[in-house]
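User: structure tokens for Octanoyltransferase LipM, please.
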Amino acid sequence: MKYPKWIFVNSGASSPSFNMALDEALLIWHSEGLIPPVIRFYSWEPAALSIGYFQKVEKEIDMDAVNRLGLGFVRRPTGGRGVLHEHELTYSIIVSEDYPDMPETVTEAYRVLSEGLLEGFKNLGLDAYFSVPDTDAKRADLKKPKSAVCFDAPSWYEMVVEGKKVAGSAQTRQKGVILQHGAILIDLDAEKLLSVFKFPSEEAKERMRIKIPEKAVSINSIRKEPATVEECIHAFKAGFEQALSIELEPYTLSEQQFADVKALEEKKYANADWNFRV
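Assistant: Done. Predicted tokens:
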């Protein structure tokens, strides 16, 4: 059987603003028919905190701690909560809403696209499965989360291993195109994660300190042999190909495309008007 060809962008480590600009640029190019659907893997240099489109910096983020730790900072075009991007592999998927057999609803499309993550974790020897909030209380938490921290609870169809969240993702739809991206935890520094968020009291922060290890887990905390970034790239690339029945072809940006991404970065994602908007 001949599988549809998507492009594979393995862009390595980039600044937070460039990473978000490239995801948006890929969405734009796909919407214009210039490129096929995309699977992209990347990392962050420097390590960075990204926040969701709707989050309030002044209310939720300790920018003094972000700066003191030398972290980058960027607002994502997607929703969701704050993510510390450090010991992880980040992925993005760019595909048209009208792609064959793509569900119309956000939740079901999320499930279909996240099948690649599921297979990737299995390729690493982990018994991963989809989270499905099974009580009214858990479903209510998704609509009104109790904290600004992404990894304190799994959402619909996010990846869970041993009952704990191991990947966090978010999605947006623009120009008829789905952009889904997320963080696959290779390791987790819970103390650093906590330090960049504001809490109403020390007691609330302590409750979250206790809660994080109960709710989130990294690949290397449960795997006998530590996983490298390259091993994860191989496992999840194969996972997406298998789950989505596609063939991934390596893709390198042209000089013009790179310049376009840099222009979008400067205009938007490196701009305080975007990152600190109220």
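User: Anything notable?

Assistant: The chain is about 40% helix and 25% strand.
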